[in-house]
Amino acid sequence: MAAEGQKLPIAERRNFLKNGLMLAGGMLAGAAANAQASDKNLSLNLPPNLPKWSRSLGPGVLTNPYGKPSRFESHIVRRNVPWLTADRIASISFTPLAELSGIITPNSLVFERHHAGIPDIDPEQHRLMLHGLVDRPIIFTLDDLRRMPSTSVIRFLECPANGGMEWRAAQMDALQFTHGMLSCCEWTGVLLSTLLQEVGVQESAAWVLAEGADGAHLSRSIPMHKAMDDALIVYAQNGEPLRPEQGYPLRLINPGWEGNTCVKWLRRLEVGDAAWYHREETAKYTDLLADGRARKFSFVQECNSVVTFPCPEKPPTEKGRYELQGLAWSGRGKIKQVDVSFDGGVNWRRAHLKGLVLAKALTRFSLDWDWDGGPALIQSRAVDQTGYVQPTYTQLREARGLSSIYHKNAIHTWRLHEGGKVTNVQIS
Ligand SMILES: Nc1nc2c(c(=O)[nH]1)N[C@H]1C(S)=C(S)[C@@H](COP(=O)(O)O)O[C@H]1N2
Ligand SMILES: [Mo]
Description:
This protein is an alpha+beta fold. The chain is about 15% helix and about 30% strand.
């Protein structure tokens, strides 16, 4: 027990008081209550008692040669929306954003988007072919690539369809599903520009086609300016080899651009003088405008943000002080500013940008918040370093009409109800 006069931090003091009350209650209620307590082993493990795990030896090293989370955190998993796709082969699972801290998405929780399932690639039998309008076409092994100068960057990756189910109205009941086609990892690999210099790009070259080795043969045309800028051929993710779900053994990362352009299981790069206009850049991943025409090549993921606490999965439990938290990101660079509203966009308070503020990476923001227990309409609005301000739904729909799916980055609203329930709503 804490020594008389010793100062405990507030939260600890509160638990201390609660435990004191529980113990007192137990003593009054007698044997029945004690039996119940030992059943649950709850109060017996709390101060001033020594918990059972402090009175015995635990399992030793290599209990889990490849580590895994505590069994008490087994609810923190990727999830899917069963009605969204016909099967799990061409489908999506979502990052549990409400459960994560900081800006890095752990490898096991990165959302998945596959068009033809996950290929089981033997790295010994995998090659990257680089050909087309180049002087010295070449086929790289993974060892060849690992011998080249490497780069590591922390960048977000977002499917342009993130939130696309809500283009017309709110319908998803969780942050995981409204914004969870989003991740942020440290990616390690070789700059595409290094490979292109190696093979000698010819004068008429203007585009690079990237093609995957999966059954979908997913392919996208990448303009030469991006290929020569920060496009990266990666073999590692958060310090370990890419996960099969993320493109093992090799993937293209186009920082800040549509996740769809970040071709997984990369097997071929072809240099050409024009775009290829393949399926994923014509029938899909173009945006239908109000007048019926389509935007072509909307590569950049625009500035966006969302409040991650409170949210439907994590409502406040009682009135009082909290730290509101959220994530902001922009494919154009760094986040400059985030404002938070509690009254649906009438008044705004400046949020604090926490920790690392990196270009084209998730940026965490927070705000001290004293909840009075009453209803609120909670929003966040991000501004990026170019001065671009996240639009309202009205502004987005004026520019883009009602028939889009992709690139929905409107200011999001959580409705906090009296009593603490949080639901997903849209206000203009
Ligand atoms: N070869 C290949 N690359 C692919 C895909 C695919 O199905 N096949 N899906 C794309 C899409 S639509 C997205 S949003 C991202 C998803 O990356 P992740 O599964 O690592 O989150 O990969 C892209 N790259
Ligand atoms: Mo995607």
